[in-house]
Amino acid sequence: MPRVLVVGGTGLAGRAVTAAAIDRGHDVVVASRRVPDDDSAEFVPGADYRSADLVSGDGLEEVLDGVDVLVDTSNGAGRAASHVFATGSQNLLHTAARFGVRQAVLLSIVNVDRSAYRYYRAKAAQERNYQDSALETRIVRTTQFHEFVSSIFQRGGLGIIPAPAKTSFQPIAVTDVASILMDAVEGRGAANATRTVGGPRVETSRELAKQWKSATGARGSIVSTRLGGALGATWRAGDNLVPRDAIDGVGYSDWLSSSVV
Ligand SMILES: NC(=O)c1ccc[n+]([C@@H]2O[C@H](COP(=O)([O-])OP(=O)(O)OC[C@H]3O[C@@H](n4cnc5c(N)ncnc54)[C@H](OP(=O)(O)O)[C@@H]3O)[C@@H](O)[C@H]2O)c1
Question: Which domains does the chain have, with CATH numbers?
């Protein structure tokens, strides 16, 4: 079985990818700056956890030695986004090429190159680094995760559940994302190409907020809120939706019923 490196494998998507890779019988190494404790929720039994920093490059040679395929599920918040996505992916891919890694898979976001949102611009730079790399590359762009949509509703203050105005989402389960990423790791789908996938249904933010409210028992009124800036514009333009690429996966309401939110 090939040795698979999950970069950012302690994160939300990375944990699901690590679990799927172990389930499929791969030899799995996980890289992140912090190595999780064996009894933490981030720890997937069977994976080999190592510390590495994409931005400084510390530890990259050690984690890439002997790896056949890498899958990048790293993330960065705020200013760190451009460091992790632009600089970090350069460091990772150059070191991977030196160590003879054959293939790379990147988790990205649908229509990420069509938005002026700063985080998306950094993500688009990351995609370009993968496209330009010496490795055989597969990019998987997905719609927003169920957890991300729930986080919007959770963010409201007392008595308010914010639902972005004139906005729909097509949320997807990270378990479905992980399975699609693992197909790419195993070489399925065209090489040096981008695959776009969306959750099973497009629903308005108000419809999704109602489902979240009912599943969580949250109190408060669902209030239509206008999200300013480039991200709000991207969502209102529907650039977060790919209805033609909907998969037959776990929908938001089923995910809510089976999750602690
Ligand atoms: N949220 C969504 O709806 C959505 C939809 C489509 C695609 N995506 C993409 O999916 C990816 C994963 O998102 P997520 O929410 O699963 O991320 P996350 O939970 O924030 O996890 C990020 C991972 O990256 C690691 N990391 C951060 N900085 C690092 C560095 N300098 N060096 C090495 N590792 C580093 C973190 O570990 P340490 O902090 O310990 O280093 C962690 O393992 C992102 O690229 C995001 O753009 C997200």
Answer: 3-143+173-197 (3.40.50.720)
Name the β-bridge partners of 32.
51
Check pocket membership of 122 for ligand 1, CB cut-off 6 A. Answer: no
Over its C-alpha atoms, the chain yields an Rg (Å, rounded) of 18
Task: Please list the ranges in the chain whose pLDDT falls under 70.
Answer: 260-261
| pLDDT at position 260 | 57
Q: Is the CB of 14 under 6 A from ligand 1?
A: yes
Q: Whose CA is nearest to atom 18 of ligand 1?
A: 11
